[in-house]
């Protein structure tokens, strides 16, 4: 057992301790290299009469095993390869489970996917009871299922509803919940630092292994499925074969490939590619206690930052305070934090109506009304109070960062940080740089965003940036469809069927039709009829004049109940509003027509943003559309979808829709060129 690069083997009397420690990696995965070492090590320990028990543990705090190596899955060229991969994994887990020597999993940190399957195959499971220790099968979110016996062992160890919950949602559960469900035999409590916890878990597991040599653990209380398997042994083999067949089938689908592509994109957007911080960020201020401003404070105060929430009125600050405290009180109810943690977190937040103490800030995030003069004025005032190193970030969704910084003496310190509402739930953060923004400033903004738990795309300053621009184009097409007599429910049904997280008519109401209208009016001055013609501009104006702003005014495309905001009916006023502008057409719009008309506008504009260098890569474009607008994750984002469907076919569709509906469907030159050259966005 020499020349091991991913494992360390230690001994304590008759107990062997196998430590997972993947080479050159922050976390352990079931990579090919890891498994090529583990199997022969396991066989040798099994055949060594001096070894009476085995402990498997990680040498990396915070990571037992985070799952299978995605790259290994992607390298499979055929369904047969995936089937064999699954069968091989099942064989290894069966050998662990059938070992005559007790095998104990000592778990600290993420125990996910294939790592969870290893733990399930062990005879005894000990888990560190801390926030980092989580169990689950997140491969479900990649369009796959557990392929090394996990489907069978979860059904054996859990009641059917609990097993199906994990298998169908891919959600992760904390150690305490896993113990309650019967997935963990015993919890050990945190005693100090990560290193101290790992040493304690190590020694505890070794002592437990010695006990189990004398007395093997009693049979678990299994669920209904296990009882049947024990009665009809043949079902187990059939279940494993069905698992392997399904794993192989799913792994070859476009949906799984798209979700894996998105996973890689998400991982990339969780990195800071702009160097290391030159100065530690300790204190931030948020200017404006709006819903967004309070939301930014909410996701900052539990990250070790000192936060100042500023507004000019006591009423606004009280409203922001109520929003934040309610959010954290909800965390207490859901057992995410304790009362002690709640008090400590809120102690990081200060409310103020003056510019006092702003000189202490490392970054200031402005979240005021979407008006250029307002943002320029606040920047001008703040520059008289803040330190030289302090960064000014504007939470804007349409206004040019270059214009905001036009009167600044330090444009290199000005940046955009576009948060999405609700801030504590929407993961995406769109950071906007200008030509003058320094890499140091971008690095600091990305650092804060990552600390807040965000997925980040960095885009270049330009009309509407990226996500707002896509939102404008799809919103306009929805209004064209309304003008042709289509109902909001038809639009919601078609877009949800396509894979959008929320029906797009509902999304407009939730976002605010008044806000969308202002975005459209602004971008119409730049893009003209490529975006919208005057009749549809007038339809937007009618909505504004009639206060049809959406959910916040209780009426927009739908009418909302006072008692239940989730209850909605189609707004009958729409028919009256389109009376003067509606287009009478004999064409019967199919669901596919609705989907293509909206999606082609989005796809074309996404490509246009790449062509104009608003976004820097297809990956950023896919991540932005999925996590910012709810584009179908199973299609991987607009660029991955165009590759899969075929860019030449997309261009043909655009040309056909141009003939029917006008020049707003003219494909961008980038797509035309790629179609002619048979190129794709991803290699």
TrEMBL record:
It comes from the Eukaryota. GO terms for cellular component: mitochondrial fatty acid beta-oxidation multienzyme complex. It is an enzyme of class 4 (lyase). CDD domains: crotonase-like. It holds the Pfam family 3HCDH_N. GO terms for biological process: fatty acid beta-oxidation. Residues 283-461 form the 3-hydroxyacyl-CoA dehydrogenase NAD binding domain. Its EC number is 4.2.1.17. GO terms for molecular function: enoyl-CoA hydratase activity; long-chain (3S)-3-hydroxyacyl-CoA dehydrogenase (NAD+) activity; NAD+ binding. Keywords: Fatty acid metabolism, Lipid metabolism, Lyase, Multifunctional enzyme, NAD, Oxidoreductase. It catalyses: (3S)-hydroxydecanoyl-CoA + NAD(+) = 3-oxodecanoyl-CoA + NADH + H(+); (3S)-hydroxyhexadecanoyl-CoA + NAD(+) = 3-oxohexadecanoyl-CoA + NADH + H(+); (3S)-hydroxyhexadecanoyl-CoA = (2E)-hexadecenoyl-CoA + H2O. Pathway: Lipid metabolism; fatty acid beta-oxidation. Residues 464-560 form the 3-hydroxyacyl-CoA dehydrogenase C-terminal domain. Gene3D superfamilies: 1.10.1040.50, 2-enoyl-CoA Hydratase, Chain A, domain 1, NAD(P)-binding Rossmann-like Domain. In the central section; belongs to the 3-hydroxyacyl-CoA dehydrogenase family. This is enoyl-CoA hydratase.
């Amino acid at each position: 057992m020499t020349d091991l690069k991913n494992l360390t083997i230690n001994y304590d009397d008759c107990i062997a301790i196998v430590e997972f420690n993947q080479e050159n990696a922050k976390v352990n995965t079931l990579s090919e290299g890891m498994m090529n070492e583990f199997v022969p090590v396991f066989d040798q320990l099994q055949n060594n009469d001096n070894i009476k028990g085995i402990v498997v543990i990680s040498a990396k705090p915070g990571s037992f095993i985070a799952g299978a190596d995605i790259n290994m899955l992607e390298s499979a060229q055929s369904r047969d390869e995936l089937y064999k991969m699954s069968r091989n994994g099942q064989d290894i887990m069966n050998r662990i489970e059938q070992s005559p020597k007790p095998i104990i999993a000592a778990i600290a940190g993420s125990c996910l996917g294939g790592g969870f399957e290893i733990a399930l195959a062990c005879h005894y499971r000990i888990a560190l009871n801390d926030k980092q220790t989580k169990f689950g099968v997140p491969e479900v979110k990649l369009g796959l299922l557990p392929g090394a016996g996990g489907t069978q062992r979860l059904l054996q160890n859990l009641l059917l509803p609990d097993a199906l919950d994990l298998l169908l949602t891919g959600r992760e559960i904390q150690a305490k919940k896993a113990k309650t469900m019967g997935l963990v035999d015993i919890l050990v409590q945190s005693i100090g630092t990560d290193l101290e916890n790992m040493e304690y878990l190590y020694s505890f597991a070794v002592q437990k292994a010695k006990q189990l040599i004398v007395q093997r653990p009693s049979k678990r209380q299994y669920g209904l499925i296990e009882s049947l398997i024990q009665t009809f042994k043949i079902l187990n083999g059939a279940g494993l074969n069905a698992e392997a067949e399904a794993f192989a089938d799913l792994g070859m689908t476009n949906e799984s490939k798209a979700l894996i592509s998105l996973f890689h994109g998400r991982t990339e957007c969780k990195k800071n590619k702009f160097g290391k911080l030159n100065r530690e960020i300790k204190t931030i201020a948020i200017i404006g206690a709006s819903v967004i401003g309070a939301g930014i404070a909410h996701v900052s105060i539990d990250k070790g930052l000192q936060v100042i929430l500023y507004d000019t009125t006591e009423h606004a600050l009280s409203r922001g305070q109520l929003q934040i405290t309610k959010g954290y009180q909800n965390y207490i109810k859901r057992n995410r934090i304790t009362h002690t943690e709640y008090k400590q977190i809120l102690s990081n937040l200060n409310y103020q109506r003056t510019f006092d103490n702003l000189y202490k800030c490392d970054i200031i995030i402005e979240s005021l009304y979407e008006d250029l003069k307002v943002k320029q004025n606040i920047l001008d005032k703040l520059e008289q109070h803040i330190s030289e190193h302090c960064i000014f970030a504007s939470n804007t969704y349409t206004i040019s960062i270059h214009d905001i910084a036009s009167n600044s003496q330090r444009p290199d310190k000005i940046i955009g940080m576009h948060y999405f509402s609700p801030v504590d739930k929407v993961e995406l953060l769109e950071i906007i740089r200008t030509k003058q923004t320094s890499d140091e400033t971008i690095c600091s903004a990305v650092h804060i965003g990552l600390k807040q738990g965000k997925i980040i795309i960095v885009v270049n300053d330009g009309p509407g940036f990226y996500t707002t621009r896509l939102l404008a184009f799809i919103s306009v097409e929805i209004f064209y469809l309304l003008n042709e007599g289509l109902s909001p429910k038809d639009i919601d049904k078609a877009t949800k069927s396509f894979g959008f997280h929320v029906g797009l008519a509902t999304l407009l109401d939730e976002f605010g039709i008044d806000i969308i209208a202002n975005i459209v009016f602004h971008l119409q001055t730049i893009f003209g009829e490529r975006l919208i013609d005057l009749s549809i501009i007038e339809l937007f104006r009618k909505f504004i004049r009639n206060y049809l702003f959406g959910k916040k005014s209780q009426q927009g495309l739908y009418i909302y109940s006072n008692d239940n905001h989730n209850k909605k009916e189609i707004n009958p006023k729409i028919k009256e509003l389109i009376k003067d502008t509606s287009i009478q057409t004999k064409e019967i719009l199919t669901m596919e027509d609705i989907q293509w008309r909206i999606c082609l506008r989005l796809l074309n504009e996404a490509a246009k943003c790449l062509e104009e260098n608003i976004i820097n890569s297809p990956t950023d474009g896919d991540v932005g559309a999925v996590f910012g607008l709810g584009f179908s994750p199973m299609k991987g984002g607009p660029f991955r979808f165009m590759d899969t469907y075929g860019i030449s076919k997309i261009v043909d569709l655009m040309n056909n829709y141009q003939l029917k509906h006008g020049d707003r469907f003219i494909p961008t030159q980038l797509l035309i060129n790629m179609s002619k050259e048979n190129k794709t966005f991803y290699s």
